Amino acid sequence: MQLACSECGAPSRDTMLCSACDGLLAFSLDAAAFDAKLLRRTFAERRLSNDPLDTSGVWRFRELLPEIAPKHVVTLRENALPLYDARAGGTYADATRVSYLHLGMNPTASFKDAGMTAAISHAKATGAQVAVCASTGNTAAAMAAYCARAGIVALVLVPAVGISAAKVAQTLDYGATVAAIDGDFDRALEIVRSLDPAHVTIVNSINPYRIEGQKCAAFALLQARDWHVPDWLVLPGGNLGNTSAFGKGFREALALGLTDRLPRMAVVQASGAAPFAALFRDGGDLRPVQARTSATAIKIGAPASWRKALAEVRVSDGTVIDVDDEAIADARAIVGRDGIGCEPASAASLAGLRVLRRRGTIAGGDDVVLVLTGHVLKDSAYATAYHESAAPFANHIHPAPTAAALRELIDEVTSARV
Ligand code: F0G
């Protein structure tokens, strides 16, 4: 695979940003070198194998990734992904063919693992000693886990306030050094980007290996659907690495002949952190904002991958919208009612589908995949606060101090059901 600047096209040797124009780098695949039938057969056979590389929903697709010797691969069997039908979610959004791709079912409970296995394997192959990232929590946890496996020192930079404590605890558990700043994610990323890449490996999604790993979620999704392409993929957008990764994966699947078309991509941002939605609506260049949202994972005002993401959304004939925090909160509770659950940022997809159905952008019978990016337990404090409020889908705790009181409660809830 060739590495080149995604903006000026200059070829690049293994550095983080383009030395000519500072643009983000991207790998390109020579699709003509592959036989689609053979690839499909190989990928299908690997699903029956117990080889750790084959059971990973990233390394199963290794022909389509930058080459890394198997002895350097650091895998936690990421991206072995479930697709669930979204009954409550579909009813809520007024759509009949909706499913969830739950990337929160990954080893560290978010979609970041798919990118991190590629970035940390590459770091290990090149003898890196220290990995760093800026994070709202999930990148931090994923990096920490993979670094623990690789024997690489992990240093994360997080906002001191306004991110989920569960994610920080998880990161500490994996042995990472956590540094907190008096500032937001955008400031943390600015600091990390100012570090010398000769001394540390930056594993934010500006690292092109991250995108290569994350694009495999598109392959895993398509394989799980027997290579049938959905009409729409709806996903939350923050720093926009995931949008560019999914777009790249779908384009490559098409170029390889694994599929016959692209799904349309709808990116959903939180209203208080929606510079990409504003750009899509108004045109021009991205104008950073001071981000404000209780969906803390996507509280990002200056997304690094906006150019790549914009190109992907346009080529897919997609759209970008924003939804307010209340809509995200209610949609998150509905995902729970499907017996699935997700963290707040993930529920932007369902909230977004609801808006796009109302506008008629998405038809009621369209085949829609909602991407859930993080597990419900990533932010249990948020869920607790929702259920303690008067929100429409809040589910309150009932006092039942005695067996008699419990029997009454059982009668009450069973009669309410019939
Ligand atoms: N959903 C969740 C749960 C996230 O953690 C993130 C990003 C996103 C969506 C947005 O993805 O940035 O690729 O557009 N979390 C980063 C982090 C910023 O540090 O964990 P994106």
Describe what is shown at a glance.
The chain is an alpha/beta fold. It has 15 helices and 12 strands.
Describe the protein's topology.
Blueprint: E1 2-5, E2 25-28, H1 36-46, H2 52-55, E3 83-85, H3 87-93, E4 97-102, H4 112-125, E5 130-134, H5 138-150, E6 153-159, H6 165-173, E7 177-181, H7 185-193, E8 201-202, H8 208-224, E9 232-236, H9 241-256, E10 264-270, H10 275-282, H11 306-315, E11 319-323, H12 325-337, H13 348-359, E12 367-372, H14 380-387, H15 403-417
Parallel strand pairs: 4-12, 5-6, 5-8, 6-7, 9-10, 9-12, 10-11
Antiparallel strand pairs: 1-2, 3-4
Helix pairs in contact: 4-5, 4-8, 5-6, 8-9, 9-11, 12-13
This protein binds ligand F0G.
Residues 110, 112, 135-139, 205, 236-243, 297-298, 343, 345-346, 373-374 line the site of ligand F0G.
In words, what does this structure look like?
With 418 residues, the chain is an alpha/beta fold. 40% of the residues lie in helices and 14% in strands. It contains 15 helices and 12 strands. The strands form 3 sheets. The chain has a 6-stranded mixed β-sheet, sandwiched between helices. Strands 7-6-5-8 form a 4-stranded parallel β-sheet. It has a two-stranded antiparallel sheet with strand order 1-2. Helix 6 (165-173) links the parallel strand 6 and strand 7. The model has no long low-confidence stretch (mean pLDDT 97). Bound molecules: ligand F0G. Residues 110, 112, 135-139, 205, 236-243, 297-298, 343, 345-346, 373-374 line the site of ligand F0G.
